[in-house]
Amino acid sequence: MAAETEIAEEEAQVQPDQPVEETVEEATEEAVEEEPKEEPRSVLPGDLIGTSEEFIPRNGAYLEGGNIYAAASGIVNINKKERSISVTPITNTPPHLQVGDIVVGQVTDVKDSVALVEIAGIKGKGEREIVHVEQAAIHVSNVKDAYVKELYYEFAPFDIVKAKVLDLRNMRLSTVNKELGVMKAYCGNCRAVLKIDNSKLKCPKCERTETRKLSSDYGTGII
């Protein structure tokens, strides 16, 4: 009986060590591997950044017709835990408007003689949301050098425009320059982004054609 016990102890001693620790370490390393990070996404006001089925809009974003759009220029942030999406301004210090500044904004309304614009950023000053700024206006006389018959042919609500500040007291803007004007426009029928087709804009979905006072930078995203 003693001999059998000794043999069993010897067999136990010569058993190869099981790589338990290594297996645990490998599993741990695999578990903590980080997901590849997405490249930061820069957006302008009015850019489509998601849908209500995917996210809840937070700061710097707004919901319209089931789609979520950027309300300011900046970087898109996605919180996967709470399924929310927001836009963070590129800079922390709010810029100050000055006469002569080139601004980017979104058309909120078009009347007979004036287009109302909500300014969102200033060229060269971070292209970020500006706080405590009243709506600006583009008068029919400050649209372009040529005669403007109907302002509705030059601008439409939700258009993203680039303009020059003429007056701070009355917040007047001008698009009288080839670089100034509409940078991004949406179809009045289906809300798709309009594409340039010769000198007009054409909807790639419903093929509706529209006109605008276009910036030479239309569709490029260049401010």
Which properties best describe this structure?
OB fold (Dihydrolipoamide Acetyltransferase, E2P); about 220 residues; about 10% helix; mainly beta; 4-stranded mixed β-sheet
Report on the structure:
The chain is mainly β and 223 residues long. Among the domains are: 42-88, RNA polymerase II/Efflux pump adaptor protein, barrel-sandwich hybrid domain (OB fold (Dihydrolipoamide Acetyltransferase, E2P), Beta Barrel); 102-184, OB fold (Dihydrolipoamide Acetyltransferase, E2P) (Beta Barrel), CATH 2.40.50. 11% of the residues lie in helices and 32% in strands. It has 2 helices and 16 strands. The protein has helices at residues 2-13, 20-31; strands at residues 42-43, 48-51, 56-57, 61-64, 67-70, 74-79, 84-88, 102-110, 114-122, 136-139, 160-167, 172-174, 181-184, 195-197, 200-202, 209-210. Strands 8-9-10-12-11 form a 5-stranded mixed β-barrel. A 4-stranded mixed beta sheet has the order 1-6-7-3, with no helix packed on it. Strand 14 (195-197) and strand 15 (200-202) form a beta hairpin. The protein is globular. The model has no long low-confidence stretch (mean pLDDT 81).
